[in-house]
Specification:
Order of helices and strands: EHEHHHEEH
Strand order of the largest sheet: 2-1-3-4
Shape: globular
Structural class: alpha+beta
Length: about 120
Amino acid sequence: MEIWINPACSKCRSAISLLDAEGAEYTVRRYLEDVPSEDEIRAVLERLGLEPWDITRTQEAAAKELGLKDWARDAGARDRWIAALAAHPRLIQRPIITAEDGTAVVARTDEAVRDALSR
């Protein structure tokens, strides 16, 4: 199990605390320092069953600068979104936990963290 975090994020700290309380074995990826490649983002999206715009933090300054709210949200725009997430990792929703069964969850709630632990 791996968890992508921003240590400054309260949701990330809560997820780590819950993982620790449950005795989970996991590795931490500080994705702002160890930026995921476009291929890694594609792989996580597949595991999540989501599209890149589904995990994009659209209220971030970079999102506004890029004009993401006006970008198409379709198959033709998918690579553009993934490139933006790789170039501006702050745009990636957090935390993301990759579960042992090959799936992943955006773990913004205790329920989502528990869901990842049960997989």
